[in-house]
Amino acid sequence: MRIIQITDLHIYPKDEMINGVDTRQNFLKVLKTASDIPYNMVVITGDLSFFDADIEVYKWIKEKLEEYKISNYFIIGGNHDKAEKLAEVFDLKAGLTSDELYYFKEPNFIFLDTIKGFCSDEQWQWFEKKIIALKDKNPMIFMHHPPFKSGVPHMDKKYAFKQTDEFVRICGLNPNPLYVFCGHYHNEITLLKSNINMFITPSTYLQIYMFNEDFEVDHRIPAFRIIDIDKKQIKTTVRYVYD
Ligand SMILES: [Fe+2]
Questions:
Q1: Which of 16, 123, 183, 228 is deepest in the core (most CB within 10 A)?
Q2: pLDDT tens column, 23-63
Q3: Structural domains of the chain, with CATH
Q4: Residue 85 Cα, ligand 1 centroid: separation in angstroms?
């Protein structure tokens, strides 16, 4: 099966450029390119809103997904989103527990909520049960924040995930390799640690220079990830969408 991952859309509320980017056009370019590729499932891993969670932006994204006939798509929130608003617009209320949006899809897909930069105790308990229940499988986890600091000083210092140890402890309860697909860092990074294989996917908005503590744009080429899974292997690649 093939999964398309799209992340960090940061759709600007007004129909104008921001930081030299038309966030809507960038997303649409990615959507067009991705929708021309045969796929089974699309996952959007957070930061749909530019800065503050915006219901009008969510409605616009939903309209575009329908327009491009994107079927079987799944959505989680990032630090610029609100779970309740996402659940309302994208009809995901079944996945809403308190103020977090996390859910499971057979056979092995776990969607976590890291909107606050950490997870509630309730979500960790749910995650632990799922990881143990999948002991004969390779769990595939989608979350906005990379669970590890990843060598981008601007992000590591100010915006890193706050509960790495808990994540690693729970993943260690499963004897198999786990695959984590995330965003948030606006970079393309692969990090392999103990039984966790983590892939950070670049944004559709802009990419951040990875050697600076201060924010600096690396480039403005939008991207998405393709994940191909079969019985014997997982293959993943990032596609950059040029004009
Ligand atoms: Fe983010």
A1: 183
A2: 999 999 999 999 999 999 999 999 999 999 999 999 999 99
A3: 2-240 (3.60.21.10)
A4: 17
Instruction: Indicate the pTM of the whole model.
Output: 0.97
Distance 66 CA to ligand 1 centre (A): 24
Alpha carbon of 170 to ligand 1 centroid (Å): 23
Residue 53 Cα to ligand 1 midpoint, Å, equals: 12
CA distances from 193 to 21, 85, 148, 198 (A): 35, 34, 9, 8
Between the CA atoms of 11, 12, 14 and 18, what dihedral angle is there, to the nearest 10 degrees?
-130
Q: Residue 243 pLDDT more than 90?
A: no
Angle at 101 between CA 179 and CA 180, to 5 degrees: 10
45 beta partners:
76
Sign of the Cα torsion 164, 205, 63, 54 reads positive
Report CA(48)–ligand 1 centroid distance (Å): 9
